[in-house]
Amino acid sequence: xxREMIIVLDFGGxxxxxxxxxxxxxxxxxxVHPYNIGLSKIKEMAPKGIIFTGGPNSVYGKDAVVCxxxxxxxxxxxxxxxxxxQLMAHLLxxxxxxxxxxxxxxxxxxxxxxxxxxxxxxxxxxxxxSHTDYIEKAPQDFTxxxxxxxxxxxxxxxxxxRLYAVQFHPEVMHTVEGIKMLQNFVLKIxxxxxxxxxxxxxxxxxxxxxxxxxxxxxxxxxxxxxxxSVAAVLMAKAVGRQLTCVFVDxxxxxxxxxxxxxxxxxxxxxxxxxxxRVNAQERFYQKLAGVTEPEQKRKIIGEExxxxxxxxxxxxxxxxxxxxxxxxPDVIESxxxxxxxxxxxxxxxxLPDHVDFKExxxxxxxxFKDEVRKAGLELGIPEHLVFRQPFxxxxxxxxxxxxxxxxxxxxxxxxxxxxxxxxAKAGVDKELGQYFAALTNMRxxxxxxxxxxxxxxxxxxAVCTSDFMTADCAQIPWEVLSKxxxxxxxxxxxxxxxxxxxxxxxPATIEFE
Length: 513
Ligand code: XMP
What we know:
The protein is of the alpha/beta class. It is built from 14 helices and 18 strands.
């Protein structure tokens, strides 16, 4: 993959990977690196441009994260976003201070100068703001190019030095013309051609894997989700029956999902690989008994998954390579940079300690989700698998608020199944990024026939999102919701109330725990 590249320097913001993803949407390869990677490494990589992310700190606080000031003199265009913009101002002699009023959310920004960065952008444009500090005064030689009623420097630049800064987040979809601004930066200011494509990824990767693995034995943890499925098929194409896939059914999958995974990857499916299914439901329920704290549930499920996997690996004996379906967001989210951890995801960081293998292979490590899907299609994986909605590793464990029990799993599986059926019947599934039922921990009074009931409330969720970092609550047609609600209450024992979640992300998350 020799190509022109943009580097995102991660100062700990929540949207760091989104920036990289948006740059790749401009067909320019982009990598995220920690803010302190060092100037010499940056020069070695010879990027066409650099983007500074946001971050949770103050540039003048004792926790300030700072890069070398000389970076501004190497002649590579830099775009500072939020904290990145403040850092640029601070290091170059401007004034950053706590704003009299914090700005959060969709904000109308007035563009004062339609410079290269703002080519084709409206005079007044809605942008996503999220800051407590602001640039009170831009450094000398900088022009202020945009403002808001409470933010005097919403954007500034010094084109002679190829330095640009915006206080808002162009990468977030709520910034209506954000993509245009990023395109302007990457294509016009940095001069990238925008010719990076995924086509050759699969072929090159299969060849790389063959060269590396030779005649070795390979073991892969398969969840049936998009990432591990694409990784498994890629490996199967490269090394065939040298590959064994272990599928752990932790009892927290959607209704019938275990059997569906087996139908595709098992002996009756289209792929030529060794497939082992482990039914470990009871083990997981036992470990989760009495546990209510979401992060603890995540950790227990992740831990137990590894233990089960290790036991299976021991039965298989020494393997040479372990395959993981890690994708780029996992790598970035797992704290390689300095992003504040909001939820621990167990995909990375939870490697088995006691499996005897030489090396890990992560064939999708540098790809974003949509790129993994493209690779899946190239590999001939059926569309219904490639475009499956994402499903969290801890599964229904984080869609059941509070303690997880087999009975609650049954309730949420049945409710979710009905909800998905009704959504598919109405044909609205294509417009939704993710939709599911969750089980609240709330029981309330109802009436069924002549009986008073005291049962659970199921919450239905549906969001529209392409990046899963931000999401809008979906406006599902009322008939679909009411049909699903009726069926759930009538058909699922233990439920007497159905609620619909109307919050977007932020401030809510997509999952409930
Ligand atoms: P949130 O709830 O953070 O979800 O808005 C964003 C996306 O991530 C998925 N998700 C997880 N995936 N392990 C995973 O592998 C997890 O612990 C986890 N938590 C959330 C979620 O389904 C959504 O697609």
